[in-house]
Amino acid sequence: MDTNVLQRYWAGERDFVGLKLANAKLNRAELTNINLSQADLRGARLIGANLQQANLSNACLANADLTDANLEGADLRGADLSAALLLRTNLSQARMVGANLKWASLAGANLEGADLDDAILSRTILPDGSSLSPALSLDRL
Predict the structure, then answer these.
(1) Using H for helix, E for strand and C for coil, what is the string for the chain?
(2) Is 107 exposed, middle or buried (0-12, 13-18, 19+ CB in 10 A)?
(3) What end-to-end distance do the CA atoms of the chain give, in Å?
(4) CA dist., res. 94 & res. 75, Å (int)
(5) Rounded Cα gap, residues 136 and 25, in angstroms
(6) Which of 21, 88, 90, 119 could serve as a FRET partner for 125 with CA atoms 20 to 30 Å apart?
(7) What is the pTM of this model?
(8) Percentage of the chain surpassing pLDDT 90?
(9) What b-and-e string marks burial along 20-51, b requiring 16 or more CB atoms within 10 Å of the CB?
(10) Which residues pair with 105 in a beta bridge?
(11) How large is the average pLDDT for residues 18-45?
(12) What angle do CA 55, 91, 112 make, to 5 degrees?
């Protein structure tokens, strides 16, 4: 299924709403402007993937590995990123309103200009390596 999606993307298709890609291996994939809203990407490996300007709203990315991925300007509103690895991930200008980042690791991530309003950040590891407990303020970001 992973190669099928890539072939369809390379052929010009961009709309993959609700696609089931649990545990997919899409390392270093070039997927700019892709629409994966409501997609199931649980446990997917997207290490070094380029998802710039991607629509991942309401997608399930729980336990996904997005280490070194580029999600600049991506739409992650309402996405489930619980326990996801976002190590050194570029999330600049990403829209993450209402996203679930509980137990996620953002160590070394770039959050410049990211909108984290109403995001769930309980037990999240922050870009500086510290952990955000439920009682702390988002002012640290």
Answers:
(1) CHHHHHHHHHCCCCECCCCECCCCECCCCECCCCECCCCECCCCECCCCECCCCECCCCECCCCECCCCECCCCECCCCECCCCECCCCECCCCECCCCECCCCECCCCECCCCECCCCECCCEECCCCCEECCCCCHHHC
(2) middle
(3) 37
(4) 6
(5) 35
(6) 21
(7) 0.91
(8) 89
(9) ebeebebbebebbebbbbbbbbbbbbbbbbbb
(10) 85, 125
(11) 97
(12) 130
Task: Give mean pLDDT, residues 68-93.
Answer: 98
Q: Give me the amino acid identity at 137.
A: S
6, HSE (Cβ side, Cα atoms, 13 Å): 13
Residue owning tokens 């770039």: 110
What mean pLDDT comes out for the span 46-52? 98
Q: Cβ(33)–Cβ(51) under 8 Å? A: no
pLDDT tens digits along 6-28: 999 999 999 999 999 999 999 99
